[in-house]
């Protein structure tokens, strides 16, 4: 090949075609007119939220095609206002109607399947339905009282999230300009303080803001949080938990599922990256070997792919790869020193969020976040290296013959908890769903 074929010039290079990388690419391409190159190792875009096709041949030779989702299963705020950040991005790049969202208003819960104490119940969205349903039946009047008090305690966090769209957030000296139209909500958030707005929900679970005492209600909040973050409620973002508690129980509340699966969302975001005349492109099967820098490490210049191709990025590079990958992607020792605040480089390990029982039979999420020293939390590289790592999810993709099923009696979505909501040992002595 000619040397020219070995070099590609873009305005912005993005490592990874997950939802974050695709959203960034779609915004830069569509709203800012940048030439964007997104480089993804996988043969499919979407990262942890992709969909894939699988074809099987029946005994009679007939071929059947199935679409399997791999990624988020509980989605809110896409079919109705107030829209979540994903829908805000799709709207901003002119693709808000590209995805056909199918709202549904409940999902099924199955505890201790096929055991003598099996429970089946339903989480219905909307005002009072959860309170007068499973919360009252399993948690009692105390749980209802705490639920209402908790919603009241977190209402200011929610009002800010509703009133201030994610697209209005900006970094840098001009950050306040797009927020001026949301001054009342902004003042309310500022009054909450940084610890509340950027902290975890633990301050509302275990004090000092509020203490949830009802065991069933605590277990339910942990199960709900685990669906959001892979962590218990006390270690999940306070703003995220407060918003979900509001959004699930408001007038018009609905869960959303994209027709065609999450792949339809990813297809729309890819379209957002590639639409127009900027020659932006999502490049699949293009593994990034390194993020390149100037010799002294002070400027990010582009990427080198595993096949040897160089990507020159005029304006910069966005890394949407897992944070623990950054250290390995930066090859220049001077750049590593810059990203490490000029401190001496040392090997660091990610904090592990789970622990395994002594006999190795099961694992559970740690009740408290693993500590990290000030030294290991002082620079960008240190924060990435020691970021908490949650456990992996095992996805089993199964195709069912639905011809003999009563589909009208089934929910669109089920959560099955083999150990029940209370966890190991059950009841007040259970270790919870996580």
Tell me what you see in this structure.
The protein has 434 residues and is of the alpha/beta class. It contains 14 helices and 17 strands. The chain has helices spanning 19-32, 85-92, 129-139, 141-153, 155-163, 183-192, 194-197, 202-205, 215-229, 238-248, 262-274, 326-329, 333-339, 380-385; strands at 7-15, 36-39, 50-57, 63-70, 101-104, 106-111, 119-124, 255-258, 281-283, 288-293, 300-305, 310-319, 351-352, 354-356, 363-365, 388-389, 414-417. The strands form 6 sheets. Strands 9-2-1-12-11-10 form a 6-stranded mixed sheet. Strand 14 (354-356) and strand 15 (363-365) form a beta hairpin. The longest helix has 15 residues, at 215-229. It is globular, with a radius of gyration of 24 Å. The termini are far apart.
In short:
The relative contact order is 0.17. It contains 14 helices and 17 strands. It has helices at 19-32, 85-92, 129-139, 141-153, 155-163, 183-192, 194-197, 202-205, 215-229, 238-248, 262-274, 326-329, 333-339, 380-385, and strands at 7-15, 36-39, 50-57, 63-70, 101-104, 106-111, 119-124, 255-258, 281-283, 288-293, 300-305, 310-319, 351-352, 354-356, 363-365, 388-389, 414-417.
Helix proportion range: 25-40%
Radius of gyration: 24 Å
Distance between the termini: 54 Å
Q: Let me know the largest β-sheet.
A: 6 strands, mixed
Global morphology: globular
Low-confidence stretches: none
Percent of sequence in beta strands? 15-25%
Structural class: alpha/beta
Average pLDDT metric: 86
Q: Can you list the strand order of the major beta sheet?
A: 9-2-1-12-11-10
